[in-house]
Amino acid sequence: DTGVSQDPRHKITKRGQNVTFRCDPISEHNRLYWYRQTLGQGPEFLTYFQNEAQLEKSRLLSDRFSAERPKGSFSTLEIQRTEQGDSAMYLCASTPDWSSYEQYFGPGTRLTVT
Amino acid sequence: AQSVTQLGSHVSVSEGALVLLRCNYSSSVPPYLFWYVQYPNQGLQLLLKYTSAATLVKGINDFEAEFKKSETSFHLTKPSAHMSDAAEYFCAVSEPGGGADGLTFGKGTHLIIQP
Predict the structure, then answer these.
(1) Which chain A residues touch B107 with a CB distance below 8 Å?
(2) What does the alpha-carbon distance between residue A68 and residue A54 come to, in Å, rounded to a whole number?
(3) A14-26 residue pLDDT tens
């Protein structure tokens, strides 16, 4: 079991550019979560998937954000027209099934928008 | 809506001393509660969890926490601090059964260990 992986680990982009992050959950984990963590704060829930279905989205997820999980395996989080306020650590977590409550986190992708 | 309050953004203790990190929650139903640890530039690692079984929960690295419903608290303790415990600690809450909205985290407490 290799754990949750995220790519890239760091991303620096200019304001207005689009960025895409990838998360690979632990094999056979059905639920996948995305969180955002800004400096000095705890992670904030963005969205989650049950297999390939996106079941919940936070109000933090503006129209510039989109997430997908094709075939219920890896997931991508895209931010369009990035703003400086998007600078944060983006964390991915997964759980085995609907009844599991223990979320396993990846190392995160740190985004810096200049 | 659920919320978590962690008292003290920074806590400093001497090596070998008791560690006490405070967490209070607000929830309309008895929640599940978690403590996570985060080392610099890393993801979160689960220390321990409360899921309506025993109120005193033991976790990894000699950490433990006690769920007190009357006080809506879930404080984290460790009898003897080690230098390797220096990190950011987050208390989190979810609705029983996992919660559709993911975890709600506190703002974190930075634990400093003095030699």
Answers:
(1) 40-42
(2) 8
(3) 999 999 999 999 9
